[in-house]
User: Fold these one by one.
Assistant:
Number 1:
Amino acid sequence: MEIQEQTHAKSKQIFEHNRKYIPGGVMSLPRRVEPELAFERAEGAYLWDADGNRYVDYHAAFAPAILGHNDRRVNAAVEEILKHGPSLSGSGTNALEGRLAELMCTNIEVCEMVQILNTGTEATMAAIRLARGFTGRDHVIVMQGGFNGSHNDVACNVLTPLEVIGPRVSPGEYKYVPLGCGVPLAHQQLVHIVNFNDLESVRYVCERYPIAALITEPILQNVGILKPQPGYLQGLRDLADKHGFILIFDEVKTGFRYSVGGYSKIGGVRPDLAVFAKAMANGYPISALVGRRELMQLIADPNPAKRPFVAGTYNGHPISVAAAIATIERLLEGNGEIYRKLERLGQQVQAGIESILRSHGITGLVARQGSAFCIYFMDHEPQDWHDLARNHDFSCDMTLRRRLIEKGIYFFPVETKQCSISAAHTEEDIDVTLRALDESLRL
Ligand SMILES: Cc1ncc(COP(=O)(O)O)c(C=O)c1O
């Protein structure tokens, strides 16, 4: 593929227009990045902006596109619903949502019952509410460097500057640093922030507060690919059993990306509740709260005092449910054939990038799980946010992302943001990416 000289005139025009009516010109603030691009079309592994520039896409819309954009089979399932229903009735149930629920309960070990919602935020909010209702406790533990959505309990402490939270403390906790204003102080006091891979701090917090739940991504994927150390997830399970809190795995990003059973299947540790979204429907809006029957049944408990309120007009929207069924059925085909392909492409990316970094004498590595990866400009894989924030070269990371975009390779231009390969990517796409990366580092 020839690298085209890019113009962004139309993107600029669209942004200028939209900024007059939409705060920041975007419908979700994390989308406001430089360069400011308006995207018009996506197909398989590619994105096109309004000026017709094509990009090999590794952003995948923050990770849902596991089969590739605009997957024909998923779209056909949606078209079938549009033509023949069911429609959103807002009353009772339908056979379609029962099919999705059964598919999930049959294939995901932690999933004994399911509640379908629309976004990751709604699902983590419902999970925490359910945990509070079940335990009768109010406090929750959240990870520094994790992201679990935009509600009050979790909209905090992702890429927090170390000057703000201070040096590593273990055992101990960090202050709640909101991602924006509007979170009542009284609420912040119920949330305890600890580092990932730090069991001692979880123990410390449990000995001081009545903890209802600990929520964590099993791999922190909003600061790259920050993996659990051996025994860490089991350690959380043991602490949950000892102190009586509900262990919630936020599998919004990890779920369906590495296996249909979620990361808990790979890691061998079973949470009490788990939350899925993103790759579950290849880009259609859906999420799921799943977990132990004893807990999930409370959502419909006849006693209102025991029943956490979980509801939504669009929950189980037939379009998204049909998209999820088609996506999951595709992922299940050929006994994991898609995951084997994704692993091969992931290995090609990792080996290629690490060899290029070596050839340029640059200290760095690829942290990777299957099809999700991140380049860290440091000499080891980070163990927690403090390690990452102190050692990663953020400026080199951002420069590389911007240069790649100029060359038609879309790495989301925010430092440490994870890249996702889809089943629509080819070895040729990876080769093109590696050549662009090599040239970008040569400058
Ligand atoms: C791990 C994780 N949990 C929850 C969320 C929130 O999901 P949503 O944006 O659908 O509300 C995200 C979003 O990126 C996420 O990455």
Number 2:
Amino acid sequence: MSDHNCPENTHWTLNLQHFGNTNIKYLEVSGACAVCGRKVEFRGPMGVSPEHPTASAIDGSEACLPFLFAGEIYDGKGVGYSVSVRGGN
Ligand SMILES: [Zn+2]
């Protein structure tokens, strides 16, 4: 565990992604403490979906937020998947 309050000094990284035959774009967000390097772990369904935000399936260290610009209409077939994980402690 850390000896300081990580959320007060978090370094965020934003990355724009586009994949599949669709105009949906994805903003990928990751974050880590600027002091100790501890990664943010996002919660939520895991995977990638054009329908809703997800967390990366690998370790949850990346949030994937699908979006369109104002006025754009969802075009094409979305690709991706998501998995909900329930249970655990
Ligand atoms: Zn820290």
